[in-house]
Design goal:
The complex is a heterodimer of chains A (290) and B (280). With 290 residues, chain A is mainly alpha-helical. Chain A contains 12 helices and no strands. The longest helix of chain B is centred in the first third of the chain and has 32 residues, at 65-96. Chain B is globular, with a radius of gyration of 24 Å. Classes of the chains: A mainly alpha (290), B mainly alpha (280).
Chain lengths: 290, 280
């Protein structure tokens, strides 16, 4: 049994150690052939981002902010939609299992297919402009979704569509698990459904909701598929998330050292954020301490 | 006790809205896949005037779809089988044995799940290039390289879920079987594995879907021969930047339907594994 565990540790640890090593080298298309002998540059790659205020660090900071905004929008919107669906489908009514399956379709669809589908729908004469613009008159019918601030929102809608069902999937059993005596008692006392939700449902499912929010925030913060399929490597500024920037720096500009340094900074942020989140909100991540 | 009228109204509106949001894109997908190319270029129409199944035939010729399908199937299946076998052994060890650093291993497994793919992509790419130079073993562009890469992140997650499932099989049941004359392996196979089978299936499906839809690593680590579906699909865009949307939608549907059906069938086991943390 031990070999299996050793294997896992190796498979995870070796790339990480290599990433740290690469981040202190000047690694580009010329030095990569013999990368162990690439020039040692120490903290230079990190200094590009953290050291001084220049064009690159400015662009990276903006990209970081965009990634955070993207994550925040998806986490909040997914939890709200997932919670609404879970609470309403926990009621006894006909067809609720069927509706639940319909909601899960988008999550079950391979993510790149979802991204292709929304790219199609956001085309100038596509379904979004036809329905929201031509039929309902909510937006200009010639809205262009792949440039400017709109690109950010088209990416968000795309991701939200396939992410909120996950919140629903996780929250439904939690809402259904609330003891009936509690909700019945509240209803007999004449409490409104809104009151019941705030006083009984929400406190009962808050722990699992915090866990779901954490999982979705990792997925979204690291998401590469959606922006890559929608915009390839040349995303407009508003949708140029960190994963895409690091990919471009590494595999288009072939600056592997800087790419490694950036991805390590991204990981440091994620670890710091998770520790704070778990400590401050006392999230139950599965009794790992036992 | 009946819900109030206003509550039922709100519920109806919300559920109708969510259903529309969930289904409308899928409707446009199905519709485009059976519409002639010329009409798809004209724009979206609620109801089609002409229906055709030719996109489902043409898609095999526009790109080398069959090759990509075979590549994706091979890579995803190999990843799934290896991941489940190694994952079972590892998680069984974690559940049944007390050893120093058990908590640390589980922590580490959980933490790596949160890292962005690019962090692993860069060093793996460099390591594969080095391995090729040192031993002549080609990993960049080969099936083996892709499978190895996918294993490195499907394994932690597989173990994470399987530990939950196996822990729910009580040790007593297994030990009873062992005193009845079963060996440890036999007891594991006949008792633990059997009781945890739905969970194992769910993990397998999840691993398969992850490999099936993976874009980042495949875009760098595959070549013309080993290209998987998500990378191959880019070829539906021709040199002039025109996309054969109807064929692209037909191909997307074709490769999605099997995984969607199996996922819906097994989803409840998946939730149980993710939320069974308290058993760990």
């Amino acid at each position: 049994m031990a070999p299996a565990i050793v294997l896992i540790v190796l498979v995870q640890a070796i790339p990480m150690i290599a990433a740290v090593a690469m981040s202190v080298l000047r690694l580009n298309q010329f030095t990569i052939r013999d990368w162990l002998h690439a020039p040692f540059v120490g903290p230079d790659n990190y200094a590009v981002v953290l050291g001084s205020w220049n064009v690159i660090s400015q662009a990276l900071l903006r990209s970081f902010a965009i990634t955070l905004g993207y994550t925040a929008v998806i986490v909040v919107a997914s939890c709200i939609l997932g919670m609404l669906a879970a609470v309403f489908l926990a009621d006894e009514m006909r067809g609720r299992r069927f509706l639940g399956s319909i909601f899960m379709l988008a999550f079950a669809l391979p993510s790149f297919c979802a991204a292709i589908l929304w790219t199609f729908m956001f085309q100038p004469h596509g379904a979004v402009n036809t329905v929201l613009g031509e039929n309902l008159g909510l937006i200009p019918r010639d809205t262009f979704w792949f440039a400017g601030d709109k690109a950010f929102w088209s990416m968000c809608i795309n991701t939200l569509w396939r992410t909120w069902p996950f919140a629903f999937l996780m929250l439904l059993p939690a809402v259904q698990g609330i003891p009936h005596e509690l909700t019945e008692a509240a209803r007999v006392d004449g409490a409104s459904r809104w009151r019941e939700f705030r006083s009984i449902t929400l406190p009962s499912v808050s722990r699992i909701t915090l866990l779901v929010a954490l999982i979705i925030s990792f997925w979204t913060f690291n998401d590469f598929t959606t922006p890559f399929i929608m915009f390839s490597t040349a995303a407009p500024d508003s949708a140029d998330v960190l994963s895409l920037v690091i990919y471009r720096i590494s595999f288009v500009n072939l600056n592997f050292g800087l790419g490694s340094a950036l991805s390590l900074l991204m990981v440091s942020f994620l670890i710091g954020f998770s520790i704070l989140y778990i400590r401050l909100l006392r999230v139950d991540i599965g009794g790992l301490d036992g | 006790m009946r819900a109030s009228r206003s509550y039922r109204l709100v519920r109806g509106v919300v559920l109708a809205g969510l259903t529309a949001f969930a289904l409308f894109p899928l409707y446009t997908m199905v519709l485009a896949s059976i519409t002639p190319s010329i009409q798809v270029q004209l724009g979206f129409a609620w109801l089609p005037t002409d229906l055709t199944l030719t996109p489902y035939i043409e898609m095999w010729h526009t790109i080398d779809l069959l090759r990509f399908l075979v590549n994706s199937t091979l890579v995803s299946l190999a990843t799934t089988v290896l991941s489940v076998v190694v994952g079972l052994l590892a998680s069984y060890a974690i559940v049944r044995h007390r050893f120093v650093g058990k908590g640390t291993v589980l922590h580490a497994v959980m933490i790596t799940q949160t890292f962005p793919g690019v962090l692993f992509l860069l060093p793996l790419f460099i390591l594969y290039v080095s391995i090729a130079r040192a031993t002549g073993l080609t990993l960049v562009g080969s099936y083996a390289g892709l499978v190895l890469t996918y294993l490195s992140f499907s394994l932690p997650f597989t173990i994470w879920l399987l530990v939950g499932y196996l822990a729910s099989v009580s040790r007593d049941t297994e030990e009873a079987a062992m005193t009845d004359g079963c060996g440890r392996l036999e007891a594991f196979l006949r008792i633990s594995l059997r009781m945890a089978l739905p969970g194992v299936l769910a993990v397998a499906v999840f691993t398969f879907i992850s490999a099936w839809s993976e874009v980042l690593f495949a875009s760098v680590l595959s070549n013309e021969q080993t290209r998987t579906l998500p990378i191959g699909f880019q070829l539906f865009k021709n040199g002039h930047g025109t996309v054969q949307w109807n064929q692209l939608m037909a191909a997307s549907l074709t490769i999605s339907v099997p995984v969607v059906v199996v996922f819906l069938w097994l989803q409840r086991y998946f939730v149980r594994g993710l939320t069974s943390g308290s058993d760990r």
